[in-house]
Amino acid sequence: MAEREERTFIMVKPDGVQRSLVGEIMERFEQRGYKLVGLKMMTAPKELLEMHYHELRERPFFPKLMAYMGSGPVVAMGMDIVAQGRAMLGATDPLKSAPGTIRGDYCQATGRNVCHGSDSKASAAREISLWFKDSELSHYTNEQHTKWVYE
Ligand code: IDP
Ligand code: MG
């Protein structure tokens, strides 16, 4: 990992998969020069989703969130990314997201906001270990990175 990067967890949610936005969303991060270290498609079991969103379990929308997130496959990604990953995602409410962000460009409802991104280094570490086994994460040098993305 380059010095300025941290690992984060990005996920295209079921609506993003249904709406064929997987490539678009991945491309945004790739084009910025972020390094992909893990990738898989899966329909998440209920227990995994409950652990992933455990901080929200008392919120009134939690049952709907579980139904939404379990409604179909998601695409989970581990990325080495600088802090701006979250800024590229936009606000939780897509209508408050600036145009140019993923949520600002592709969606309108908080309950259908197409993509997840970790909100801190600590939650990224927790989420990566929930969604990926160590053996599913790739260790390699991105040559473009070391030479052309960072100076
Ligand atoms: P985040 O995804 O921007 O980090 P969180 O507050 O962590 O936002 O909430 C997780 C997800 O739960 C949101 O992305 C959204 O899909 C859903 N959610 C959050 N707040 C609401 C709400 O008020 N109504 C419906 N769904 C919500
Ligand atoms: Mg969150």
TrEMBL record:
Keywords from the UniProt entry: ATP-binding, Kinase, Nucleotide-binding, Transferase
Annotated residues that bind ATP are located at K13, F61, R86, T92, R103, N113
Spell out the Gene3D superfamilies in the cross-references.
Nucleoside diphosphate kinase-like domain
Q: Does the keyword Transport apply?
A: no
A GO BP term, please?
UTP biosynthetic process
**What GO molecular function annotations does the UniProt record carry, in alphabetical order?**
ATP binding; nucleoside diphosphate kinase activity
Cofactor (UniProt)? Mg(2+)
| Ubl conjugation keyword on record | no
- Report the superkingdom from the record: Eukaryota
Ranges where the Nucleoside diphosphate kinase-like domain occurs: 5-139
EC number(s) recorded for this UniProt protein: 2.7.4.6
Pfam families, alphabetized: NDK (PF00334)
Reaction(s) catalysed by this chain, per the record, are: a 2'-deoxyribonucleoside 5'-diphosphate + ATP = a 2'-deoxyribonucleoside 5'-triphosphate + ADP
| Active site (UniProt) | H116
**Which family does the UniProt entry place this protein in?**
Belongs to the NDK family.
Mind telling me which PANTHER family this protein's record contains?
Answer: NUCLEOSIDE DIPHOSPHATE KINASE
The record's section on HAMAP family has: NDP_kinase (MF_00451)
The protein's name: Nucleoside diphosphate kinase
What gene is behind this protein? WBGene00109354
